[in-house]
Design brief:
It is a single chain. The protein is of the alpha+beta class. The chain has one domain. The protein is about 30% helix and about 40% strand. The protein has two helices and five strands, in the order H-E-E-H-E-E-E. The chain has a five-stranded mixed beta sheet with strand order 1-2-5-4-3. A hairpin with a 2-residue loop joins strand 4 and strand 5. The mean pLDDT is about 90.
């Protein structure tokens, strides 16, 4: 079980990451605090593409669901895992 101090520390990381994402005009879709690192789901944007080109982001999952093929990208920001999904129709 996490202590209040651990949760507060993760909330501070989330706040810093969301402020940075907002400065990049990124749409935040959800935040999940579970495990050791908060996960923030965003809408894909041009910043994601630039990070991929620079090798600072990567695709970690490629799959298929009821909506078709997709891939999931990820990078880290202020101690948070930032993810997005892309449809590959």
């Amino acid at each position: 079980m996490k202590s209040i101090a651990d949760i507060n520390q993760q909330m501070n990381k989330v706040q810093s990451a969301i402020m940075a994402l907002n400065a990049m005009n990124t749409t935040v879709q959800s935040v999940m605090i579970a495990g050791s690192k908060p996960v923030i789901r965003i809408a894909r944007n041009g910043h994601c593409a630039r990070l991929l080109e620079q090798g600072k982001a990567s695709y970690t999952h490629v799959g298929h669901d009821g909506s078709g093929r997709f891939r999931q990208g990820v990078f880290e920001l202020h101690g948070c895992r930032i993810t997005w999904s892309e449809s590959l129709h």
